[in-house]
Amino acid sequence: MRLAVYGGSFNPIHCGHLSVADEALSLGYDKLLFVPTFISPHKHLTASVSPSSRLAMLEAAISGNPKFEIEPCELQRGGVSYTIDTIHFLLNKYRGRLDGKIGLVMGQEIASEFHKWKEVEQVAGFCDLIIASRQNVGDKRAATSVNKPRGNYVGGVDASGQFMGVDKSRFVWPYTELKNVIVPISSTEIRSRIAQGKSWRYLVPQAVYEYIVTNKLYGCKQ
């Protein structure tokens, strides 16, 4: 079995996440695991939404796709969520069943901080790194501009629609460029739109929309 992993806070999960995950499967993976973080070492988790709510939204979002699964090990482990710990967990859990390395999916803005990760060389050695295109976060007009461009990150795609990649003088590990459709939205933007009463319904799967409305998350007043 070829296995891919996609970690994140998913606060909330949105259509952009699902588009990236679906495109990653096209690389020949049999299963993709969504791994919600408990506490990210590089990202302050904003908005008072419980881990159980983030997990419930993930479950609602991927329902019906047999190739998508959730791995809750980081929520169960608690504390700061380090990818190397999760990779060791998965290698043990799927021992004898994996064909090749685990595919590790990350957005370009996450790749910009990859060199800061705990035991980064081990992570790169155990995994095939897959970098998804994101809208240019350096553009003040971009929905994802809250993610400041840092280090080796080069934003999004160029005028012709080509992936601009990362600065290979700093990102020294082999990686695969994911030719995903860029959905110009972020969880931060969605939370902001909900709190401000702006339109957001079609930025998330219907089941996630219903969960947020029913449970009045992110200041939802609908």
How would you describe this structure to a colleague?
- This protein has 222 residues and is α/β, with parallel strands linked by helices.
- The protein has one domain: Rossmann fold.
- Helix content is 32%, strand content 14%.
- The protein contains 8 helices and 6 strands; from the N terminus they run βαβαβααβααββαα.
- It has a 6-stranded parallel beta sheet with strand order 3-2-1-4-5-6.
- The longest helix has 12 residues.
Essential attributes:
14% strand, 222 residues, Rossmann fold, 6 strands, 6-stranded parallel beta sheet, alpha/beta
Q: What Rg do the Cα atoms give?
A: 17 Å
How many domains? The number is 1
Cα end-to-end separation: 43 Å
- Assign a percent range to the helix content: 25-40%
Give the uncertain stretches in residue-range form. Answer: 136-157
What is the number of helices? 8
The CATH architecture can be given as 3-Layer(aba) Sandwich
Question: Which quaternary structure do these chains form?
Answer: single chain
Within CATH, the superfamily carries the name: HUPs
